Amino acid sequence: MFINHMVGMFYHPKEEWGTIHEERYSVLHIFLMQISILSLIPAVSMYIGTTQVGWTLTGATYIKLATSSAIPAAIASYFACWAAVAFIAYSIHWMEKTYGGHVAMNECLILTTFTATPLFLSGLSALYPMLWFNVSVGLAALLYSVYLLFIGVPVIMEIPEDRAFFFSASILTVGLCTMVGMLVACVILWDTVVPLNYISL
Q1: What is the overall mean pLDDT for the chain?
Q2: I need a surface site. Which of 21, 58, 168, 176 has the fewest CB within 10 A?
Q3: What is the Cα–Cα distance from 152 to 168, expressed in whole angstroms?
Q4: Do 91 and 57 contact (CB within 8 A), yes or no?
Q5: Alpha-carbon distance 189 to 77, whole Å?
Q6: pLDDT tens, position by position, 39-80
Q7: pTM more than 0.85
Q8: Which of 173, 170, 138, 178 is nearest to 153 (CA)?
């Protein structure tokens, strides 16, 4: 069912949000059946791309990660995705009354998960870790996630569209700050706790 919703988000997102809202998924179901699987996409792709293909800026010189570094990095990436989704969903739940929303935490988690789905899927680009390619795919996914957010908030949060616009903007700000925070945390982690070992080709 989740795959059907995921496909529907690309073909008829407005109608799909309504269908998703009617099904009332539980928090446990969302974490175990959706986030746990989606988080694997960037983590596994990054592991394969960095150990088998290697990073490159121009396509001429490739730098691989040692397996001893790639495994902890992939695991950290996996759980960072869990933490990011949970934090954004909690923030939505905390802010909702300001904009007239009165839904449960599971609805906030649903909104966060399905909005972030294009970003999770864009993690497949890490199978070929070339900077311009990854940035292009990530930017396209981010733009589509923003679109899903703005059309999904009034449906899932059950608030008028005029309030939904400002609520969506607030959620977007939280999401972008969370992404930046994750990047900074990864840089600090890789520089101190789990130093990365590179293999030049």
Answers
A1: 86
A2: 58
A3: 9
A4: no
A5: 11
A6: 999 999 999 988 888 777 666 677 888 888 788 888 888 988
A7: yes
A8: 170
More confident residue, 75 or 197: 75
Using H for helix, E for strand and C for coil, what is the string for the chain? CHHHHHHHHHHCHHHHHHHHHHHCCCHHHHHHHHHHHHCHHHHHHHHHHHHHHCEECCCCCCEEECHHHHHHHHHHHHHHHHHHHHHHHHHHHHHHHHHCCCCCHHHHHHHHHHHHHHHHHHHHHHHCCEHHHHHHHHHHHHHHHHHHHHHHHHHHCCCCHHHHHHHHHHHHHHHHHHHHHHHHHHHHHHHHHCCCCEEEC
pLDDT exceeds cutoff 80 at 110: yes
Q: How far apart are CA 189 and CA 164, in angstroms?
A: 36
In tens, the pLDDT along 133-151 reads 888 999 999 999 999 999 9
Domain count, the chain: 1
Q: What is the pLDDT of residue 3?
A: 74
- Structural domain boundaries enclosing 26: 2-200
**CA–CA separation, 198 and 111 (whole Å):** 38
Q: Which residues contact 188 (CB under 8 A, 6 or more apart)?
A: none
